[in-house]
Amino acid sequence: MEEFLHFPLLPLLLLLLTCSSPSFVHSMESSTSRCPPSNISIPYPFGIAGPGHSPSPAQGFEITCGLSGPILHINNSVFGILNISLMDGFISILATATKQPCSGNYTDFSLEGTNFTFSDTRNKFTAVGCDMVAMLVNGTSGYSSGCASFCSTKNIMVNGTCSGVACCQAPVPKGLKKLSLEFTNITGQLGRHNKDNSTLACPEAFIAEENSYVFSTLDLNLTKSLQYRPVVLEWSIDGGSCEEAKRSASYACRENSYCYDAANGIGYRCNCTNGYQGNPYLQGPDGCQDIDECSIESRCTHGCINMEGKFRCTCPSGMSGDGLKEGSGCKGIGTLQISIVAALALLLLLIVLGFWTHWLVKKRKFEKKRQRYFMQNGGVLLKQQMFSQRAPLRVFTSGELDKATNKFSDNNIVGRGGFGTVYKGILSDQMVVAIKRSQRIDQSQAEQFVNELVILSQVTHKNVVQLVGCCLETEVPLLVYEFIANGALFHHLHNTSAPLSWEDRLRIAFETASALAYLHLAAKMPIVHRDVKSSNILLDKSFTAKVSDFGASRPIPHNQTHVTTLVQGTLGYMDPEYFQTSQLTEKSDVYSFGVVLIELLTRERPISDGQIDEVRSLALHFSCLFHQHRLLEIVDSQVAEEAGMRHVKTVAQLAFRCLRLKGEERPRMVEVAIELEALRRLMKQHSVLKIEGEHLLGESRCNGDMKFDAQSNSSLDGIAKDESMEVILLPSNGLSC
């Protein structure tokens, strides 16, 4: 019979003579090592014997590295290692089967004196042969397992089946340390010829991992080569039971681990305590460390708190239970007990008794806060200014505006801008207003804010949104304006399918220019709007223009031509000269109005969108087409049809002058307003004459006797000549265009 021998014995014996076996130590080194080129992990207490390898293996767990991988030494034999399981206490090796020669001799295979036993749960005892009984002998205790195999002809042998025909199997007894085999031939001859005169091999018996061997009739061939099969061994720490080992200095289980007796009754093993993972035979970072259960798949229905070695599930307020998905979870609290009800009733009584005092304290704090905001926002100074200048400004309380806007509900928001949010509100007298919540102002700027507020309150122009009042009792000032129902000019130009007529557009341009001219000249202190754009020109029910949003406006003293300030405005409308010099003048509004005038002519946005890798300025694009006499490419077709290209060119020339880079070359706002009004009157005059001319022509056709003399014709020609003028001449009264 042959042994479970895998590699030549003599070189390994020489290696064992040069290597000592250290006792069991608790290493702080890495818990695993490997034998290249194999990727098989070698966890402690196993280890590679010899210098240069760390950690050192415990006694009885020495492994050496062969050419193809790790090798296990068992007594005088060596075996290739397939796998090592730290948690389950198994090691899988590669071994040859024990063969029974026809002479009836056999050889024992012993694990006695080692930390290993044959696994009774993962191995099977298998015998292959005909008409024989294979017995597994367990030392002096006698037979412990065996099976019988019979054969008649090869025709009844089925590959893959090991149920007693040429192949039989039996369980491996628990705690088996020594493998001894005995064969008994039923016919009295182990090797023989079968009935069909085929030669059968001697019987073969072996222990191999369950399901690793599949019977084949080729295994009965007498010339079959030697086979290597996986065998699973159980390993344990030698030192008696756990109770005995705990009293020993060589006790192997480390922190956060526990000891359990090996199932085969030989020695003990260690495992990490529940809630920990790692190598229970090591201390340090590779030993048993806490598992953060909350960071992996949570077992809690709601909250999870990780603790050392465990975790705890939490339930939301008002719910109770263990919080586990596989437990009771979190459930609402049921009927309260009488004691809890009584306590709550008492608490409610105390709340009712203390409510009045709490309300008084809260009201006093609120009044103090309102007063602090009022002082911070310049309320006292505003009252003094209103009294001295008799400014018609109404000061609202925060409560009035809270009620008017339903506590500033988002449903009442009608606009947002760079200088605040606008809410629609209805005052107690049923007046509809627009309430603007401005940005916070510094206390150092309170005086300037109040002065501007008083100035705006004195601006009375039909084309300027009227400032009704303000509220300074809130953290940010609130300004109250008249409510303009028809929205912004921007919407009517760009976001509607029913565009304004040319007559309405020209009127809106004139009304806007008049309002800006009034701010520049007629107001008590000149005001530069600084943010003129189509979205700040509102239209009321009759489509009358109203200039709005003075959040960026700045007053300019009469003795100054400009003020230096931080650059502020809207892209596409901003004066390039102001952008470069930070000097704000009334000509900055003229430039912005020129862009609005182009919007009215073209219905194009000031900054085009939808261009690929290009952002196009309307002002620049218009100027280029104007110089190239290509206005028809950009002018709105409705405008060209209703106004005629000669009037379009007149307005385009005016817009072009407003867009000159140097402010001193631009017309003043009052000049722009006068030119627009003159153009409106001329268009009305031409419209009336056109209607009268059509009426006279109709009568001449009917009567047949009306004729025009040369003087009449020359009169009509003069009107036609006026209509064809590209630039409207104004009376010379000190104004230059």
UniProtKB/TrEMBL annotation:
Domain EGF-like span(s) in chain numbering: 290-322
Signal peptide: 1-27
InterPro entries: EGF (IPR000742), EGF-like_Ca-bd_dom (IPR001881), EGF-type_Asp/Asn_hydroxyl_site (IPR000152), EGF_Ca-bd_CS (IPR018097), Kinase-like_dom_sf (IPR011009), Prot_kinase_dom (IPR000719), Protein_kinase_ATP_BS (IPR017441), Ser-Thr/Tyr_kinase_cat_dom (IPR001245)
Gene Ontology BP term (one): cell surface receptor signaling pathway
Protein's gene: LOC100842922
Organism field: Brachypodium distachyon (Purple false brome)
GO CC aspect terms: plasma membrane
Regions annotated as coiled coil: none
Name of the featured protein: Protein kinase domain-containing protein
Keywords (A to Z) from UniProt: ATP-binding, Disulfide bond, EGF-like domain, Glycoprotein, Kinase, Membrane, Nucleotide-binding, Serine/threonine-protein kinase, Signal, Transferase, Transmembrane, Transmembrane helix
Record-listed ATP binding positions: K436
Location of the Protein kinase domain: 408-689
Domain of life: Eukaryota
Cysteine disulfide partners in this protein: C294-C304
UniProt cross-references to Pfam families, sorted A to Z: GUB_WAK_bind (PF13947), PK_Tyr_Ser-Thr (PF07714)
GO terms for MF: ATP binding; calcium ion binding; polysaccharide binding; protein serine/threonine kinase activity
